[in-house]
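@here heads up, posting the sequence + SMILES for the zinc ion run so it's all in one place. Ping me if the SMILES looks off, I pulled it from an old spreadsheet.
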Amino acid sequence: MKIFVNDIPEKGTETELNIPVEDFDLSDEGLLLKEPVALKVNLERIGSKVLIRGTIRTSVQLECSRCLEEFSHQIDEPFTSTFFPFQERPKDPDLELGSEDLDISYYDGKTIDLAELVREQILLSIPINPLCRPKCRGLCPECGMNPNEGKCACTGSKGDFRRLKSKDFNE
Ligand SMILES: [Zn+2]
Ligand SMILES: [Zn+2]
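bot reply: prediction finished. Complex structure tokens:
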């Protein structure tokens, strides 16, 4: 999955990659890939600078931060990444050519590893507090049951408590 920078034409080129689940190991990051990674990129070279724009589509298994259930998190992320040769990396990190919507990376030697790029983009797309569904109600604080799977005996009192609380805040 390495691209030789010198092979990228200045006018740009497009490439598509399908990475099978067994060829992409995210276990170091504690992640499990559920679907092959579909990568579609447009590569452009301006001198030694390389601009990569594309989309990554796949899904990973995550654990819901509220109810602890495992679920598939769909990733369909467009991204833009600009690569500079490692030698051009500024020594002072404050001088880093940063722009909010541009991702700056550096390549060492002559190649850019698309697998590394995919790995980074997947990690960036993982929410800090993943939720199995937008309104996941979490586990019941009293009995630990998952209310997404059915009602426990204490659900009613929890609801009453919430209503009381919000009424107090409004007054
Ligand atoms: Zn959940
Ligand atoms: Zn309960």
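MO: The two ends are 61 Å apart (CA to CA).
MO: One more: The longest strand covers residues 70-85.
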